[in-house]
Amino acid sequence: MSVTVTYNNYNVFAWIDWNNDLDFDDAGETYYVGEFATTGVVSIPVPAAASLGNHRLRIGGADSGLGSTIPF
User: Fold this and answer.
1) More confident position, 13 or 69
2) Beta strand 30-36 with 57-63: parallel, antiparallel or unpaired?
3) What is the pTM of this model?
4) Distance separating alpha carbons of residues 58 and 60, to the nearest angstrom
5) Who has greater pLDDT, 36 or 50?
6) CB distance 32 to 72 below 8 Å
7) I need a labelling partner for 51 at 20 to 30 A (CA). Which of 28, 37, 40, 65 fits?
8) How many whole angstroms separate alpha carbon 27 and alpha carbon 44?
9) CA dist 13 to 8, 52, 53, 57, 67, Å?
10) In 10 A of CB 60, how many CB atoms?
11) Residue 39 CA to its chain's centroid (Å)
C-alpha cells in the first residue's frame, strides 16, 4: 500500500487496524512514517495475517522534534 503525505517539517505517523477489532492497540498497527519537509510517498507493507477487505487508517503529524516516538 502506498500513501502520499504532504506536511511541512512534520513527523508523520500512521495507525492501521489490520484485524478490524476497532482499535490500534495490537502489535504491528502503528508506524512511524518519517519526517517530511514537504511531500513524501511511503509504502506500508500489508501483513500476511491481515484480513481481506477494508481497514481503518489514521494518519497524524506532529511538529519536528517528536522523532519516532509514537504519540498516543
Assistant:
1) 13
2) unpaired
3) 0.77
4) 7
5) 50
6) no
7) 40
8) 14
9) 14, 23, 22, 11, 10
10) 13
11) 15
